[in-house]
Amino acid sequence: MMETNILVIEDSEPVRREIIQILRNYSLASYYHEAGDGIEALTILREIKMDLIICDVVMPRLDGFRFLSMARSRDELRNIPIIFLTSRDDRDSKLQGLEQGASDYITKPFDPAEMVARVRIHLQIRQLQEELRLANERLMLVSHTDHLTGLYNRRYLMDVLERELSRVQRSGSHLSLLILDIDHFKDINDHYGHQGGDMVLAEAASVFRNELRVYDTAARYGGDEFVAVIPGASQSEAEAVAERIRDSVEK
Questions:
Q1: DSSP string of 93-151?
Q2: Which homologous superfamily is 5-141 in?
Q3: Do residues 28 and 116 touch, judged by C-beta distance below 8 A?
Q4: Residue 224 designated active-site
Q5: What confidence tens digit (pLDDT) does each residue in 111-121 have?
Q6: What is the distance between the alpha carbons of residues 78 and 123, in angstroms, rounded to a whole number?
Q7: What order do you get walking across the sheet with 52-56 strand by strand?
Q8: Which residues of 189-212 are buried (b: 16+ CB within 10 A; e: fewer)?
């Protein structure tokens, strides 16, 4: 089970403690954090990734509306559910919060059962969104990866080359491209079969990964052909990398 963090932003310490105790009674999170206003909350959010925030509207220094506006303007905070907590029961305040990006609204004095229900549903939505994000990342990785070698595939290579060429045109920096193939690979397939050839391709790919930097790109272009994109490398530097790869393969 994933660890979950809830942040309660409320200028009244007794109210903060009451909210946290209610949520703790229902084991809704792994960890509970508290802040007295929006400024203190932003400091905490720089250090800890939250799964849900309960935020009072009327607070000193930085109130709920201004905190919400700042949170929604930051990529790392934009998708965190924020439930507003306020004694204001007027329609305009609720609409303002929802229009600015609040996920929900609870009016004080609050009903503990209602609070628990609202927090639980938003945590469930948050978990489903995170699972969807991870699934999309895995799908994207699979679509960019050559299944045999684990290197990037030709389609992803084309995307990288397009980005790198644009960067070089803007900055005037170096960009080197290595095209590598395995000598006598047809003979290997004929003598050892395609399974043996696949093992050679996978081992060669492992060598390429080990010899290249983390920000270089190694891809299988097709058959026994591989391409390495090396940003910032001059011709002589690229030749040195190619020699190093050749020496490692020979070993």
A1: HHHHHHHHT-SEEEESSPPHHHHHHHHHHHHHHHHHHHHHHHHHHHHHHHHHB-TTTSS
A2: Response regulator (3.40.50.2300)
A3: yes
A4: yes
A5: 999 999 999 99
A6: 15
A7: 31-35, 5-9, 52-56, 82-86, 104-107
A8: beeeeeeebeebbeebbebbeebb
Residues 8, 44: Cα–Cα separation, whole Å: 11
Catalytic-labelled residue, pool 37, 51, 146, 224: 224
If you average pLDDT over every residue of the chain, what do you get? 92
Distance (Å, whole) CA 249 – CA 251: 5
pLDDT tens by residue, 150-208: 999 999 999 999 999 999 999 989 999 999 999 888 999 889 998 999 999 999 999 99
Q: What is the CATH number of domain 154-250?
A: 3.30.70.270
Q: What is the pTM of this model?
A: 0.68
For residue 178, give both structure tokens.
Answer: 């290595």
Q: Which two tokens stand for residue 45?
A: 């959010």
pLDDT for residue 12:
94
| Sequence ranges of the domains in the chain | 5-141, 154-250
